[in-house]
Every structure is written in C-alpha cells, then in structure tokens.
Amino acid sequence: MTDLEKLRAFAQFVLKDWPEGGPDEFETQHKAIELGLLEGHEAKEPCGEGCWCEEYHGEFPVTCYRKTKVLTGET
Asked: 3-state class of 73 per DSSP?
C-alpha cells in the first residue's frame, strides 16, 4: 500500500460516520497503527515533561507510539 493509499484509508476511516460522529481515540490509534502511521517503541522512562505514556500508564516500561515518516514527511 502506498503512503497516499494509507492516508486516504485513514481519512475514510475517520470520516466514515461523518457528520453524525466518528471513532473514539482508541479506534483511531488502532487504525493508525494498522496502517503504519504510528509505530510502537518501548519507553523505559518518561520522554519529557508532559509525557502521555507516564500520564496514561503510570508505570514503565510501556509501549509509546510515535508518528512515522508517512505523517511527518521526513525522508
């Protein structure tokens, strides 16, 4: 699947129930992982101030998800 196809599939997923509603955060994250837009990394400690992993899980190690190059545009 090309990057464009991944992004299109994600947009279609997010907007599938529009304008009545949309997916929740868990569904959105799961779909982004499935399409390769997010990837997991093991975090053994908070990555910095306001670390979502620490706030959400409360203890380490945890799987921390980060945007892939498909989203960031990095080469």
From this structure: coil
Q: Which residue has the tokens 């992004």?
A: 7
The 3-class secondary structure across 13-66, one letter per residue, is HHHCCCCCCCCCHHHHHHHHHHCCCEEEEEECCCCCCCCHHHHHHCCCCEEEEE
pTM above 0.85, yes or no: no
- State the Cα–Cα distance between residues 25 and 32, nearest whole angstrom: 10
Grouped pLDDT means (10 residues each) for the chain, 75 residues = 96 94 92 96 85 80 92 88
Asked if residues 63 and 42 have their Cβ atoms less than 8 Å apart, the reply is yes
